[in-house]
Amino acid sequence: MTAMNTQNRAARIEAAIRTAFAAREITVQDDSALHAGHAGARPGGETHYTLRIVADAFAGQSRVARSRAVHAALAPEFEAGLHALSLRLLTPEEASRT
């Protein structure tokens, strides 16, 4: 059995983000129930997530570059049925001001 099959999607997302960005803080919230009946929603859920990530790796990057990097890190999840992300991507300095 592969890791894709043995962990829930939230755990896989967190692991992928930690690996890709050495994130200081990660919050993964499954919002799939809020999208039931909408495009991309599946009966089993695990399709729509909100992520808050604090990482030094985002320093000097635009919001678009940060978003693209997160989407690239989660490409296997999108291929396996992840449909949508709401992202809050911050450097530690930015996080200290919020």
Automatic annotation (TrEMBL):
Domain of life of the native organism: Bacteria
Alphabetical GO biological process terms: iron-sulfur cluster assembly
Pfam families: BolA
Family: Belongs to the BolA/IbaG family.
Name of this chain's protein: BolA protein
Source organism: Falsiroseomonas stagni DSM 19981
